[in-house]
């Protein structure tokens, strides 16, 4: 076998080199303790910000370019429209000039018939040599032309006279109708005047009758007011007489009592009551004293009951303190036992740890053992 030196593909080498560079940069970024512990990669963030700004600037420039291109297209279309209009106007002007110069009506073969020109172009060829296409007036066309014109003029005169007569008749009819309408309006005005006069008389009579009625009502009301005033005076005098002779003014004590059926005590009239009698006052004082004594007995009973409750509460509190003391002693004993058990477990754990450290695990790891970790970024 012969060794053949084949050329290595450049793209493959570049790809491998690019991957190696990326791996080196990645390892430097990942295994950098300062950046990993203290903060972010500010360089990468700044680069991202710059790229974002550059992208935004490119978008703004692209938008401005599109706007300018749109304005250019609009101006081009507008200029094209203006040029086309100017071209059409110039073409129309040239065409009009051509018609006026080379296609005048006076220069046509029928100028003598259409325009009645005396100096129009005439054919110099004899009529015998011309064909049917050169004929302008055929045989039989001008017969009876004068008679027809006269008949037409007569007919026109008759039509005019008939129209004039119709207009006069219509005018007379309008005048007659206007006269009839004016007469009718005059009659209506007369009737309106008469009706207004009658209405005024009726209103006057109604107003007089209303005035008479109002006067009668006023007189009747005045009489009623006088009678009402006299009645009020009589009632006031009677009330004054009754007040002066009533039990309220005479201060009669029996007037405040009113007998009630069924053997019940008499009912007191509040508006006529003049005060209590000595017997009623003595009854009230006696009942008040009885109520005071009853209240004092209730207070004494409540004091005795409160003292009994306090004694009972004191007894219960002493029993509760005794139970609490016993429970505290039990907890203390339990805690002592737990402490002893924990100390025993600690001694056993310490002995086991000394066995592991001094007898079982005697080989210490070297630096090469730790260097095998974190050697790549993947």
TrEMBL record:
Pfam families with a match to the protein in the record: RIB43A (PF05914)
Annotated coiled-coil segments of the chain: 203-242, 306-340
Lineage: superkingdom: Eukaryota
Region (Disordered): 142-172, 274-295
UniProt KW keywords: Cell projection, Cilium, Coiled coil, Cytoplasm, Cytoskeleton, Flagellum
Biased composition (Basic and acidic residues): 145-172, 282-295
Locations listed in the record: Cytoplasm, Cytoskeleton, Flagellum axoneme
PANTHER family per the UniProt record, alphabetical: RIB43A-LIKE WITH COILED-COILS PROTEIN 1, RIB43A-RELATED
Subunit details: Microtubule inner protein component of sperm flagellar doublet microtubules.
Family per record: Belongs to the RIB43A family.
The protein's name: RIB43A-like with coiled-coils protein 1
Organism: Perca flavescens
Lineage: Eukaryota, Metazoa, Chordata, Craniata, Vertebrata
